[in-house]
Design a protein that fits this description.
Keywords: Lipid-binding
Oligomer: single chain
CATH topology: Acyl-CoA Binding Protein
CATH class: Mainly Alpha
Pfam family, one: ACBP
InterPro entries: Acyl-CoA-binding_protein, Acyl-CoA-binding_sf, FERM/acyl-CoA-bd_prot_sf
Number of helices: 4
Helix content: 55-70%
GO molecular function: fatty-acyl-CoA binding
Number of domains: 1
Low-confidence stretches: none
Protein name: ACB domain-containing protein
């Protein structure tokens, strides 16, 4: 399976999480996905009243210079980690 296929698979698998990741984990997922699909941030930073937009932009901007391939690999690893973490928590609850 190619890196792109593994990345697309991870993007689908992350949607199967039954527990919501933390805000920080969601921001990291967002930033890695954007870096992998768009590249370096290509928009202006949102205004001061758009707190969510600024947080997303800042996290993405922190990935500046990361290659598409590196971002894809990091995204795949993060999805695998989240699936494993939240799977374990669900099993413990049962």
């Amino acid at each position: 399976m190619s890196l792109e296929q593994r990345f697309e698979d991870a993007a689908e698998r992350v949607k199967t999480l039954t527990k919501r990741p933390t805000d920080l984990e969601l921001l990291e997922l967002y930033a890695l996905f954007k870096q992998a699909t768009v590249g370096d941030v290509n928009t202006g930073r949102p205004g001061m009243f758009d707190l969510k937009g600024k947080a997303k932009w800042d996290m993405w901007n922190n990935k500046k210079g990361t290659s598409k391939e590196e971002a894809m690999e990091a995204y795949i690893k993060l999805v695998d980690k989240l699936l494993e973490m939240y799977k374990d928590e669900e099993e413990e609850e049962e």
